[in-house]
């Protein structure tokens, strides 16, 4: 509708208009091919849903834009040290606790689990077994909501958690819009003197988790729950570290 300059109709679900949307996002809006493909995916899902219910007769045939495959990048030890130093000196408060405590807790949980941002922010106190150190996360809190997962928490992580322990509720107490999470990440990375683009936030921490696990002799494929080793290698392992 924004591209057309008027409210969009079902009749506007045509290949010509889909191509127009991709061009408009790429050229006029200067969005990346990945972002443009995300919009295409949503439109195609709606389009096929309408076709399957007889609301329109044709379906989409426009392929997504080609996107470059980037080499996974993990943080080095000195970069991780800078990230932790920036976390320790973070001003203000987040989730009802000092921002420094919040960041150190999030980084520790991420280092132990390799979990995505949505899962980390959804972790609850009730899921921690304090005697054994196991963190049991139900499928509903994970990507795809397909299966449960169990993570082992390191002793130093458990010490951090014990200092802010509550009987129930969200561990990180996140109650803001998700966009604010990415803004705070950008601020943290800037203070650490590290790149602050979208490739260097929680996903970079996840790649770092996977890469250093492999360097240490573990299996990132198993830890990340991937069904394919190729997925792990292509998207998560930094070859400049794992191939040494």
Quick structural gist:
The protein is mainly alpha-helical. The protein is built from 11 helices and 4 strands, in the order H-H-H-E-E-H-H-E-E-H-H-H-H-H-H.
Describe the structure.
By secondary structure, the chain is mainly α. The protein is built from 11 helices and 4 strands. The chain has helices at 15-28, 33-52, 77-88, 99-113, 117-122, 155-163, 178-192, 202-215, 220-224, 229-235, 239-242; strands at residues 93-94, 97-98, 134-137, 149-152. The strands form 2 sheets. The chain has a two-stranded antiparallel sheet. Strands 3-4 form a two-stranded antiparallel sheet. β1 (93-94) and β2 (97-98) form a beta hairpin. The chain is globular and about 60 Å long. The termini are far apart. The model has no long low-confidence stretch (mean pLDDT 93).
What would you report as the Rg, rounded to the nearest angstrom?
21 Å
Summarize the main sheet. Answer: 2 strands, antiparallel
How helix-rich are the residues, as a percent range?
A: 40-55%
The overall pLDDT average reads 93
pLDDT < 50 stretches: none
Measured by DSSP, the beta-strand proportion falls in under 5%
**How do the SSEs run, as a string of H and E?**
HHHEEHHEEHHHHHH
| Terminal residue distance | 51 Å
Features:
single chain; 244 residues; mainly alpha; two-stranded antiparallel ribbon; 11 helices; 5% strand
List the helices and strands and how they pair.
Elements: H1 15-28, H2 33-52, H3 77-88, E1 93-94, E2 97-98, H4 99-113, H5 117-122, E3 134-137, E4 149-152, H6 155-163, H7 178-192, H8 202-215, H9 220-224, H10 229-235, H11 239-242
Antiparallel strand pairs: 1-2, 3-4
Helix pairs in contact: 1-2, 3-4, 3-7, 4-6, 4-8
């Amino acid at each position: 509708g924004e591209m057309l300059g008027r409210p969009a109709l079902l009749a506007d679900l045509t290949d010509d208009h889909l191509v127009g949307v991709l061009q408009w996002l790429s050229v006029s809006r200067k969005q990346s091919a990945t972002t443009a493909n995300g919009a295409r995916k949503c439109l195609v899902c709606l389009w096929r849903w309408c076709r399957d219910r007889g609301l329109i007769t044709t379906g989409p045939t426009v392929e997504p834009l080609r996107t470059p495959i980037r080499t996974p990048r993990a943080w080095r030890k000195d970069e991780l040290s800078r990230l932790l130093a920036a976390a320790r000196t973070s001003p203000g408060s987040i989730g009802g606790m000092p921002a420094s405590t919040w960041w150190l807790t999030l980084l520790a949980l991420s280092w132990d689990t390799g979990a995505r941002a949505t899962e980390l922010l959804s972790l609850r106190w009730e899921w921690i077994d304090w005697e054994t150190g196991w963190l049991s996360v139900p499928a509903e809190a994970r990507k795809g909501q397909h299966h449960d997962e169990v993570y082992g928490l390191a002793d130093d992580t458990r010490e951090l958690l014990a200092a802010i322990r509550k009987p129930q509720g969200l561990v990180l107490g996140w109650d803001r819009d998700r966009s604010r999470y990415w803004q705070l990440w950008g601020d943290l990375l800037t203070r650490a003197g590290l790149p602050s683009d979208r490739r260097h936030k929680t996903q970079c921490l996840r790649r770092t988790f996977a890469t250093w696990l492999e360097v240490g002799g573990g299996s990132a494929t198993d830890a990340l729950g991937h069904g394919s080793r190729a997925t792990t290698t292509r998207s998560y392992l930094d070859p400049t570290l794992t191939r040494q």
